[in-house]
Amino acid sequence: MTKLDELINWFNEKDRVLVALSGGVDSALVAYAAFQNLGNSAKAVTADYKTLSRDELSSAQRVCSEIGIKQIVINYNELENENFVRNDKNRCFYCRDELAKNLFELAKKLGADTIVDGTQLDDLDDYRPGIDALKSNGIQSPLVETGFTKKQVRDEAKRINLSVFDRPSNSCLASRIPWGQRISAERLTRIEVGESIVKQTLGANQVRVRDLDGIAKIEVGKNELELFSDKLKMDEIILKLEQIGFKSVIIDPEGYKSGKINVIAD
Predict the structure, then answer these.
(1) For the chain, what are the domain ranges?
(2) Which partner for 19 in 9, 31, 67, 219 could form a disulfide, CB atoms 3.0-4.6 Å apart?
């Protein structure tokens, strides 16, 4: 029995299932397994909230089309939640707690008895209060329960030809703002536009534009750092980022690392 078979069999004896689906590979593999076992009794749910980039939404829509699973998009504004907007170290908890409540409201309407997400074993090694929020609300994590690491998720996704098998890990746009600095729609917009500018200009695959109180700090994947050596392209990026509202631009010479700004800002 393969790892994927184990994941598919996890859904045995489930009735109706909702899969919390982002645009990434982890939840995509869970959605695939659920659909293989349950067919139309499995549905994918994507929360189109204010901190989800359009690129992630497009990826989620594409993967649902590949799998054949029906996608439901729910909308709400987490910027109306002061606990979230003030952006302390529990920001992700408040975000995922609100997501869980919206998912359970939908599950009640659809008669779904199980809600699952894409958390896998490697996620448990980092500070992830959002995972605690989902777990405390009764959302289950089949990848954890069947022992999937990130590499195993990618390997299985590649084997079944999911286009997101090598998609870089991503997180909500609010993660680009240091704890202690308030989240606003304006900041989220310039972050999203800024990352699009950097990706298109440099051709980088893994990109973060951190908003450090109005200063743009650009990170790319460690294997892409040489892209910063193109002075003409960097000058173009700096000009465009300043045009969309950043006060100045700095480059992170160490490359992208998850959670790099998870500190309380002064």
Answers:
(1) 3-159, 173-251
(2) 31
Span 43-84, pLDDT tens digits: 999 999 888 888 899 999 999 999 999 999 999 999 999 999
> Letter for the amino acid at 30?
V
Q: In terms of Cα–Cα distance, which of 258, 191, 251 is closest to 54?
A: 191
pLDDT at 261 over 70: no
The pTM score is: 0.90
CB 16 within 8 A of CB 110: yes
Residues with Cβ within 8 Å of residue 114, at least 6 apart in sequence: 14, 15, 16, 17, 18, 140
Answer yes or no: are the C-beta atoms of 48 and 57 closer than 8 Å: yes
Class of domain 3-159: alpha beta
User: Which residue in the block uniquely carries the two structure tokens 């990130």?
Assistant: 150
User: pLDDT (tens digit, 9 = 90+) per residue, 80-89?
Assistant: 999 999 999 9
The domain made up of 173-251 has a fold known as Alpha-Beta Plaits (3.30.70)
Amino acid at residue number 119: T
| H/E element, 215 | strand 215-220
Task: Enter the tokens of residue 102.
Answer: 């919206």
Residues β-bridged to residue 115: 18
Please compute the mean of the pLDDT values over residues 256-262 and round it to a whole number: 68
Q: Determine what percent of the chain is predicted with pLDDT higher than 90.
A: 82
Q: How far apart are CA 168 and CA 24, in angstroms?
A: 8
Residue 165 CA, chain-centre distance (Å), reads: 14
